[in-house]
């Protein structure tokens, strides 16, 4: 009989970690914990069981309603935060455009002052005109365009009356814009800056914008 290198199975080393895991000292198997719950329920009367079921359903309903309210609050917060960000961006945009319009106003004043000078000032005025056209073109590309006020009927949504002249002297109907002190601008369909205008109307009476002249 061949007995080469044969050892009793009892002599082979056991691999650590194999076999049935121990629950450890003081640990309670899941089946034992479930058994305790079952035992507690078995000791209750039918009325008590129904009461516990009713209470469990009520707790579940309250938890569900609390979840729905929390989800709705979170959604409202997200929407409000998005609106606040959009409004902040729009305010900043309008402020920056207002600064650009101020520069444009100064360019127009410089052009108006330099035109009658002629001579050496002509080259400077031509340069100012070109810069003025470039700025207007850039503004138009983002939806900003000047209003046409003179000769139009006064509109308090678009115009701000700063002076009143006699309709007879101006040769126009009452309530007509006869002069422009400061040009107004639109941003798409919204008023970016109202035009400051002179309006034909009776003096010492209410002007078209409701103020007293």
Please provide a written account of the structure.
The protein starts with 29 loop residues before the first helix and ends in a 13-residue tail after the last strand. With 213 residues, it is an alpha+beta fold. Helix 2 (46-114) runs antiparallel to helix 3. The chain contains four helices and six strands; from the N terminus they run αααββαββββ. The chain has a three-stranded antiparallel beta sheet with strand order 1-4-5. A three-stranded mixed beta sheet has the order 2-6-3. The chain has a domain at 146-213: Head domain of nucleotide exchange factor GrpE (Nucleotide Exchange Factor Grpe, Chain A, domain 2), CATH 2.30.22.10.
| Tally of DSSP β-strands | 6
Alpha-carbon distance between the two ends: 133 Å
The succession of helices and strands, N to C, reads HHHEEHEEEE
Global morphology: elongated
| CATH homologous superfamily identity of the domain at 146-213 | Head domain of nucleotide exchange factor GrpE
Average of per-residue pLDDT values: 81
State the helical fraction: 40-55%
Give me some keywords for this one.
213 residues, alpha+beta, Nucleotide Exchange Factor Grpe, Chain A, domain 2, three-stranded antiparallel beta sheet, three-stranded mixed beta sheet, 4 helices, 6 strands, 50% helix, 14% strand, elongated
């Amino acid at each position: 009989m061949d007995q080469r290198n044969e050892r009793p199975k009892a002599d082979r080393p056991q691999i650590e970690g194999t076999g049935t895991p121990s629950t450890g000292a003081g640990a309670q198997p899941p089946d034992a914990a479930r058994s305790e719950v079952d035992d507690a329920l078995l000791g209750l009367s039918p009325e008590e069981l129904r009461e516990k079921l009713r209470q469990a359903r009520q707790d579940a309903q309250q938890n569900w309603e609390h979840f729905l309210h929390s989800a709705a609050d979170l959604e409202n917060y997200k929407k409000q935060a998005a609106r606040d960000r959009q409004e902040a961006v729009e305010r900043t945009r309008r402020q920056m455009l207002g600064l650009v319009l101020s520069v444009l106003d100064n360019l127009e004043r410089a052009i108006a002052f330099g035109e009658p000078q002629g001579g050496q000032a002509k080259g400077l005025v031509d340069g100012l005109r070109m810069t003025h056209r470039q700025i207007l073109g850039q503004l138009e590309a983002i939806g900003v365009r000047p209003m046409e006020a003179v000769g139009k009927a006064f509109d308090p949504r678009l115009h701000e009356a700063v002076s009143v002249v006699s309709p007879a002297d101006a040769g126009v109907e009452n309530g007509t814009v006869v002069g422009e002190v400061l040009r107004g601008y639109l941003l798409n369909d919204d008023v970016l800056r109202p035009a400051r205008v002179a309006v034909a109307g009776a003096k010492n009476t209410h002007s078209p914008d409701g103020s007293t002249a």
